[in-house]
Structure formats: structure tokens, C-alpha cells
Amino acid sequence: MLDLLNDVSEVRGIAPTPEAVAVVKDMHRNALKVSNSPAHAVLLLQDQLADADREARSAIIERQVLTGALQERQRRIAELQVQISYAEAQRGRQVRELTAEVEAYQKQFAGLASERDRLRTIVRQLERQLHEANSRGLEAEQRCELLERQLAAIDEEGASGEWSSLAKVARILLVDSRPDNLLALRAILAPFNHDLLEAGSGEQALSVLDSTEGVALILLSAEMERGMDGFEIAAHVKRRIRSRRIPVIFLTAEKHGPHYTFRGYAAGAVDYISKPFDPWVLRAKVAVFVELYRQQQQRTVDGLE
Predict the structure, then answer these.
(1) 20 to 30 A Cα–Cα from 265, which one of 14, 47, 94, 168?
(2) What are the b/e assignments for 277-301, b being 16+ CB within 10 Å?
(3) What pTM was estimated for this model as a whole?
(4) How many Cβ atoms are within 10 Å of 113's Cβ, its own excluded?
């Protein structure tokens, strides 16, 4: 039957359509079924066998095609898996490199931040030191002015030795816990013939100030062996209305250094002298402050008149 169809197709030059082949096959099967001839049964079986054989060959071809497609897909999957593994390895390496770089930047940032904070601390310290230096400079200028006046007084009266003519008699309070120091101060200031008051402690000094009028100057030792030290005494003196305007000269040991001087100025002192001191320098300083006190008293009297 198929041969007949192929012959017809060659004659007409047109390939049979699947639908036409199926119709012819059905007609052939039906004709064989209605026939009781054994020959017809054999032809029917042969036809079915041919159909089964074609279906088997078609299935084999389809299986081969599908197997090839499957193998191609599996090969592509394997290639993609290799690419994925390589990409993941690359990504892992990049992540590790970036992580190391980030950690390095974090360490660098931490170092820079630490350096910044350290420099800020140094700047604050330098600003504070600059402020202190400016304060010391101002105090030094004032002290230089005072020393210039003292030197002028020495030039005028030092050669003759007549220190008593530089200023009139005034009351001066000497504060020291050691009697030998008080005796030395009294001996140095003896040429002035001033009224010298003594106190061996801070309590005695405050008591003298409370009970005495017209104290022109206080010579105060920074090192007191008992009770309040010199800085505490000076603070009490400056807090009292009665004594806050009395100038205080600190007498300090040279071993203490500049920080004692700064504390003295902070406590309200107008000047300081390091022990052991030059008697001529002490006399000049005392003379200047006594003269300032006398001038102030004179201005007060003139104002009242």
C-alpha cells in the first residue's frame, strides 16, 4: 500500500500528506477486517508489523535526538558550572581583597583619628600654655616696671646709704614661722626705722591686721611650718575688705621654681623675692611700696580737703 502511494506521488510529483496516508491505512485495515481469508489476516499482521517497525525506528531516532540534546544540555550545564565555580572563586578572592583593604583603611582611619585627637590635646595644652605665658609676660612687664622704679630709688639713695630718707615711717607686717627669719628681716629693714609688726602664723597675721590700722606692706613667707601656708594666708588677706588693698611680697625658697611664683601671683601677691635674697633689693622693694602707700594716703587726704 505504501509502495502504491509512493508510486502515485512520483507520477503526480506531490508527496502524500500524513492525513491522506492515515486515511488509506484505515481503509486498508477495515477491508482486511471484513475479509475472512487467511491471506487477508497475514496481510493485516504484516501491515501492523510494518507500522510497529516504523514506530520503533521513529522512537529510536527520537531517542537518539533526545539523547543528543540531553548530552548537549548536560555538557552546557557542566560548562556553566565551571564558569560559576570560577566566578565564585573570583568573587571570593575579590571579597577577601576588599575586606583586607577595608580593614587596612579602618586601621588607617583609626590611626588618623588618634593622631587628630592627640594633636587637639596638644593644641589645647599649647593654648593653655600660651595663655599662661601671656599672663606671665604681663606680670613680668609689671614687675619690670616696678623693678625699674626700685633701681631708680637705689641710684638716688643707694650710694649715700640714707635709706630712711626715701619714705616716711610706715607699718610693715612680717609673717614667718621661723623666728630667725623674722630677726633677719628686722635687721635688714632697721635703717628705715619703720614700725615692724611680726606674726609667726597665719592666725596671728590675720589677728594683727584686724587690730591694726595703716599697714602699708606685708612680707609673707610662702613656707610656713604650721597652720596655713603663705598662699592660704594671702587668700584670706585678699578676701577681707579691711586688708585686701595691702600689697603682699612673697618670700620663697629658690628650690621651688617658677610654679611657686605663679601661685603667689594667683594668690594676690604684687612681687616675690627668692631666698636667700639681697638685702639691698629687699630694701628697695620695701621703699617703693611704702612710698606708693604714702602717696595714696596723701591723695586721700587731699581729696578730703
Answers:
(1) 168
(2) beeeebbbbbbbbbbbbeeeeeeee
(3) 0.47
(4) 10
